[in-house]
Design a protein that fits this description.
single chain, alpha/beta, Rossmann fold, Dihydrodipicolinate Reductase, domain 2, 2 domains, 6-stranded mixed sheet
């Protein structure tokens, strides 16, 4: 079997660590792993298939001889190193938002638009976590009846803000238990026992940057250039796995029975939908795995051509690391 030299840019972060874990889990044909991070991490190691691998400093020359670079760093780092990655001949599968809306860069969810990978010119973008989860949940329905619009609310776990999110939640809970105060550092307000209805800065007409991603990225992924999305993103005191409420408007009627049958067979989805038995997608059940659970499917009482549903998925895995590795798997095929 042919093997590949795979670099992970941002190997010490939450997504980078998950990428390394999933490369081993999925038995990706890694001949050599090159974990890359900032200079302060040089000398540390990561564990890959039982072996300790030294972290190297990310620099332009670090990509020489690399076949695939999995990006798990911020936009500025992705933009800084993208030219050197492409010049080296490697393919950059980037998890940041730096190139997602670039018309020359494919934006891919393998269950939805795998053929778009063939259009790459050295860079392929991984979509936003909530976009991946939502589009995976609804794409099979879109194939039957094109989606005209969506009204969406996301309930996003604290780990979506990075490794410091869960730590801050736990520290606040402990401080409150002791009757002490804790000054938030990761979030703009206390997240323990609270909801924060803002993720990202204001971008358009009162919508945040996070809220605009589902419309802008969803259009590109599902090849729906006229798709309209009104989204509200909320940070919730859940450690892992994002939950999303979706009201779909189609160009024709789709019954609940049809939708259930379609979603039960959709790639990347699991139908969990029995209200009488209290069976529906929940963050605890969807954490640390790669399937998007879909349930609470019911008619939209405001639109005869509408359906409502609820979905959950692990935003660190399917919403980031696993999706990137699935893209890499398409490349090596």
């Amino acid at each position: 079997m042919k093997t590949y030299t795979v670099a992970v840019l941002g190997a010490t972060g939450a997504v980078g660590q998950e990428m390394i874990k999933i490369l081993a889990e999925r038995d990706f044909p890694v001949g050599k792993l090159v974990p890359l991070a900032s200079a302060r991490s040089v000398g540390k190691t990561v564990t890959f298939k039982g072996q300790e691998v030294a972290i190297q400093e990310a620099c332009d020359t670090a990509f020489e001889g690399v076949d695939i670079v999995l990006g798990a760093a911020e936009n500025d780092i992705a933009q800084k190193f993208a030219p050197a990655i492409v010049a080296s001949g490697a393919v950059f599968v980037d998890n940041s938002s730096a190139f997602r809306l670039d018309p020359n860069v494919p934006l891919v969810v393998p269950e939805i638009n795998p053929e778009d990978v063939k259009q790459h010119k050295g860079i392929i973008s991984n979509p936003n976590c909530s976009t991946i989860i939502t589009c995976t949940a609804v794409n099979a329905l879109n194939a039957v009846a094109p989606i005209k619009s969506m009204v969406v609310s996301s309930y996003q776990a604290v780990s979506g803000a990075g490794a410091g999110g869960p730590i801050e939640l736990m520290n606040e809970v402990e401080a409150l238990r002791k009757g002490e105060t804790y000054e938030p550092k990761v979030f703009s307000h206390q997240i323990a026992y609270n909801l924060i209805p803002q993720i990202g800065g204001e971008q358009y007409e009162g919508y945040t940057s996070e809220e605009m991603k589902l419309q802008n990225e969803g259009r590109k992924i599902m090849h729906l250039p006229e798709l309209k999305v009104a989204m509200t993103c909320v940070r919730v005191p859940v450690v892992r796995s994002h939950s999303i409420s979706v009201a779909l408007r189609f160009d024709k009627k789709v019954t609940v029975a049809e939708a259930r049958e379609i979603i039960a067979q959709a790639p990347g989805c699991k139908l969990v939908d029995d209200l009488s038995k209290k069976m529906y997608p929940m963050p605890l059940d969807t954490s640390d795995q790669d399937i998007v659970f879909v349930g609470r499917i019911r008619p939209d009482l405001t639109d005869d051509n509408g359906l409502c549903l609820w979905c959950c998925g692990d935003q660190v895995r399917k919403g980031a690391a696993t999706n990137a590795i699935q893209i890499a798997e398409l490349l090596v095929k």
